[in-house]
Design brief:
Blueprint (H helix, E strand, L loop, with lengths): L3 E7 L3 H11 L6 E4 L8 H4 L4 H4 L9 E2 L12 E2 L21 H11 L6 H9 L2 E3 H8 L7 H8 L8 E5 L5 H12 L15 E4 L1 E2 L1 E2 L2 E2 L2 H6 L9 E4 L3 E9 L5 E10 L2 E13 L2 H11 L2 E2 L1 H6 L6 E2 L11 E8 L6 H5 L2 H14 L11 E5 L10 E6 L15 E8 L7 E3 L10 E3 L6 H18 L2 H4 L4 E4 L7 H11 E3 L24 E4 L2 E8 L14 H17 L2
Parallel strand pairs: 1-2, 1-14, 2-11, 5-6, 14-26, 15-16
Antiparallel strand pairs: 3-4, 6-8, 7-18, 9-10, 12-13, 13-14, 17-20, 17-23, 17-24, 18-19, 19-20, 21-22, 25-26
Organism: Rhodoferax lithotrophicus
Protein name: Alcohol dehydrogenase [acceptor]
Pfam family, one: GMC_oxred_N
Length: 562
């Protein structure tokens, strides 16, 4: 078994799979991709509704939990992270969402690097995109769209790439009514959430192919990487720590990693570079275990401090959604169908025959982006609307017909931490998001719940007689609603920022604008972090596709030695 490579990538998740594809395309570069989880040959990964059986399953999930959170009135949340080839793209909600142009323009300002601005990021989104609309028209002679429409669309979207984007294969009357109600409340309809401003209401597009989940393992590893002799993949291989040496000049250099494999402990060496793509939880944990992190934290756990980096594990940001549930009458929802054996049989048969229906569902089907109140300068909240309801994720659906309108603050000002609890890599770190810890976030939560009520009160939904089941109409004041948000809100699994990039001189900037790790007196040679942890500020939407964009950009820099 070879233990020397040019490039070692730690984590075969969203970013790691794309990086492996791009870097191993150079036949002279020996690339090792290391994944702690197993192969993505578990059938529930590929059936879209299978996220229900992947989250909370040690076969595919790290099974993290947050620390008890004051903002959630002392509650602790399940915190899924993919532990399998494809990482979170194998267990997530499959929603294709870039965010807003202003997100990337802000990154450019925070890092001082214009290559992160929207216009510079757009080609990196398009480079791997395979959008169904362009694919259908260019290759299948589909005449539904005018040439002018297609020309405009092709300026923003790509075709022929590895990352498949399709429309969903189902619709619901109750969701159509919610979309109409949102328009009556002043939210415009949209057919494209990914053009730079995602304001509007419409059905989400998803990363699926003909009714199957499309994860990054299928998109970027097979068959391209697996057929290349210069590419090596290790699964069920957990990195214990990075091997970092202090050179005579005082500069640090990452030379490889210590890996626990099924054959025992192995020290692997990188002649060029180690790329950490272990995610917003795994990457800061590995840096801390390797001596790069807050000095006091490392000393507390008996780890020699190679570089006091207070930003490692700081700046944790996440999207917290508040779930409002409304009982309805006279309309079909999934609650009744999924609670009967006949309904379940019909669902299974439809998927078997057509690859459509509830088994092809993303966790959320309808989306909306708008302002929590008129003073907001841009859309600052996102709705995920589902034709179902339950007490909590993983629990049975309610026995009554209902829909859920979940709303999240896209730009939270609350900040949390990820910190090791032990020098043992097998001990999960302490994840403390500190949700709703600022007055601004509590106000957005209260305003969002009021806006949800305003949408549901519109004429389009009146025929279904919606009744608020959660949080309950008795709660009206800002204080009531903020407290209730703490009781019923859950994460939508978008942790970012824990190894943030930033300008030189920023003490909390772990990375430079090319995602290279900072060290004493300069950079840690041969070490980069490429995953959602590098985001300085969370994007205004789901975070999977922005992570792919970052990996696309980073791959070019790595190949150019920049």
């Amino acid at each position: 078994m070879s233990t020397t490579f040019d490039t070692i990538i730690i984590g075969a998740g969203t970013a790691g799979c794309l990086l492996a594809n791009r870097l191993s395309a150079d036949a002279s570069r020996r690339v090792l991709l290391i994944e702690a989880g197993r192969a993505d040959n578990y059938h529930w990964i590929h059936i879209p509704v299978g996220y229900l059986y992947c989250i909370g399953n040690p076969r595919t999930d790290w099974l993290y939990k947050t620390e008890p959170d004051v903002g959630l009135n002392g509650r602790s949340l399940r915190y899924p992270r993919g532990k399998v080839l494809g990482g979170c793209s194998s267990i997530n909600g499959m929603i294709y969402m870039r965010g807003q142009a202003r997100d990337y323009d802000q990154w450019a300002q925070l890092t001082g690097d214009p290559s992160w601005a929207w216009q510079a990021a757009l080609p990196d989104f398009m480079a791997h995109e395979n959008h169904y609309k362009l694919d259908s028209c260019l290759h299948n002679n589909d005449k539904r769209y005018s040439s002018k429409t297609l020309e405009s669309f092709s300026q923003l979207h790509g075709t022929g790439g590895e990352w498949r984007v399709e429309k969903q294969r189902l619709r619901w009357d109750v969701l159509d009514a919610f979309a109409q109600a949102a328009q009556q409340a002043g939210i415009p309809a949209t057919e494209d959430f990914n053009a730079g401003s995602n304001e509007g209401v419409g059905y989400f597009e998803v990363n699926q192919k003909s009714g199957w989940r499309w994860n990054t393992s299928k998109a970027f590893l097979r068959p391209a990487c697996t057929s290349r002799p210069n590419f090596t993949l290790w699964t069920s291989a957990q990195v214990v720590r990075l091997n970092i040496e202090r050179q005579a000049s005082g500069q640090l250099r990452c030379t490889g990693a210590l890996v626990r494999t099924t054959s025992g402990m192995v020290s692997v060496r990188a002649t060029a570079e180690v790329i950490l793509s272990a995610g917003s939880i795994g990457s800061p944990q590995l840096l801390q275990l390797s001596g790069i992190g807050p000095a006091e934290l490392l000393q507390r756990h008996g780890i020699a401090v190679l570089h006091d980096a207070p930003g490692v594990g700081a700046n944790l940001q996440d999207h917290l959604q508040i779930r409002s549930v409304y009982k309805v009458q006279g309309v079909k929802t999934l609650n009744a169908q999924a609670n009967s054996w006949l309904g379940k049989a019909q669902i299974a048969l439809e998927y078997a025959l057509k690859r459509s229906g509830p088994m092809s569902m993303a966790p959320s089907q309808l989306g909306a982006f708008t302002r929590s109140d008129a003073r907001q300068p841009y859309p600052n909240i996102e709705y995920h609307v589902q034709p179902l309801s339950l007490e909590a994720f993983g629990e049975p659906l309610h026995s009554f017909p209902a829909f859920t309108a979940s709303v999240c603050n896209l730009n939270p000002s609350s900040r949390g931490t990820v910190q090791i609890k032990s020098p043992d890599c097998n001990v999960a770190p302490a994840i403390a998001p500190n949700y709703l810890s600022t007055e601004a976030d509590r106000q957005v939560a209260a305003d969002s719940l009021r806006l949800t009520r305003a949408i549901v009160a519109q004429p389009a939904l009146a025929k279904y007689q919606p009744q608020e089941f959660k949080p309950g109409v008795q709660y009206q004041t800002d204080a009531d609603l903020a407290r209730l948000a703490g009781d019923i809100a859950t994460t939508i699994f978008h942790p970012v920022g824990t190894t943030a990039m930033g300008r030189d001189g920023d003490p909390l900037a772990v990375l430079d604008s090319h995602l290279r790790v900072r060290g004493p007196g300069g950079l840690v040679a041969g070490l980069r972090v490429v995953d959602a942890g590098a985001m300085p500020v969370i994007t205004s939407g789901n975070t999977n596709s922005p992570t792919l964009m970052m990996a696309e950009k980073a791959a070019r820099w790595v190949m150019a030695g920049q």
